[in-house]
């Protein structure tokens, strides 16, 4: 190994210490998964802000009704989907398993459940749009049903990947906890 002050010790090229310079795989995985989950949380916050903006514009009548439609009923409980994101972010600094589990459970309750309800709520309007070509609610000239279904598809993917990576992270944390207990 090289010292900070100068060249390597005589008789070694430093390669005999490489096994000591590796980081355990579950720590590498933890860092990578935290990074991915943070990206997904930022995407979820962006979706949340879009819905919040649509609700504010719709209720405060900042734009005409034909520009931005009033929100659907599923959008109100979906606003609670910021809670799982906060739990997820709070779990990262100290690898807090409890907050991560709360984040995963509340993602199902506050994020995925409203999206399922929303897709069922909007289905008759989507069917009417498909069969008859008639839309009665618009968001900047586009059918509100089409825009909101697109948002639902993106949100389901974001939350699905977030749950998948959270489960992998939880497994990684359990692995490191079990190894610490064995020592």
UniProtKB/TrEMBL annotation:
<feature type="transmembrane region" description="Helical">
    <location>
        <begin position="138"/>
        <end position="158"/>
    </location>
</feature>
<keyword id="KW-0812">Transmembrane</keyword>
<dbReference type="GO" id="GO:0005789">
    <property type="term" value="C:endoplasmic reticulum membrane"/>
</dbReference>
<dbReference type="GO" id="GO:0016192">
    <property type="term" value="P:vesicle-mediated transport"/>
</dbReference>
<feature type="transmembrane region" description="Helical">
    <location>
        <begin position="99"/>
        <end position="118"/>
    </location>
</feature>
<comment type="similarity">
    <text>Belongs to the jagunal family.</text>
</comment>
<dbReference type="Pfam" id="PF07086">
    <property type="entry name" value="Jagunal"/>
</dbReference>
<keyword id="KW-0256">Endoplasmic reticulum</keyword>
<dbReference type="InterPro" id="IPR009787">
    <property type="entry name" value="Jagunal"/>
</dbReference>
<dbReference type="GO" id="GO:0038158">
    <property type="term" value="P:granulocyte colony-stimulating factor signaling pathway"/>
</dbReference>
<keyword id="KW-1133">Transmembrane helix</keyword>
<feature type="transmembrane region" description="Helical">
    <location>
        <begin position="40"/>
        <end position="62"/>
    </location>
</feature>
<keyword id="KW-0472">Membrane</keyword>
<protein>
    <recommendedName>
        <fullName>Protein jagunal homolog 1</fullName>
    </recommendedName>
</protein>
<dbReference type="GO" id="GO:0007029">
    <property type="term" value="P:endoplasmic reticulum organization"/>
</dbReference>
């Amino acid at each position: 190994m090289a010292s900070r002050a100068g060249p390597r010790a005589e008789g070694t090229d430093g390669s005999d210490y490489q096994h000591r310079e590796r980081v355990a795989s579950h720590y590498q995985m933890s860092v990578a998964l935290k990074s991915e989950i943070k990206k997904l949380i930022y995407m979820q916050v962006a979706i949340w802000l879009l819905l919040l903006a649509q609700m504010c514009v719709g209720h405060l009548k900042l734009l005409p009704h034909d520009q931005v439609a009033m929100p659907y009923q599923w959008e109100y409980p979906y606003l609670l989907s910021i809670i799982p994101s906060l739990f997820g972010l709070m779990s990262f600094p100290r690898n807090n398993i409890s907050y991560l589990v709360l984040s995963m459970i509340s993602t199902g309750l506050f994020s995925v459940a409203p999206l399922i309800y929303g897709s069922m709520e909007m289905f008759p309007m989507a069917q009417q749009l498909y069969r008859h070509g008639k839309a009665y609610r618009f968001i900047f000239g586009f059918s509100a049903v089409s825009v909101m279904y697109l948002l639902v598809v993106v949100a389901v993917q974001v939350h699905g990947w977030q749950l998948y990576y959270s489960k992998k992270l939880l497994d990684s944390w359990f692995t490191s906890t079990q190894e610490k207990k064995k020592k």
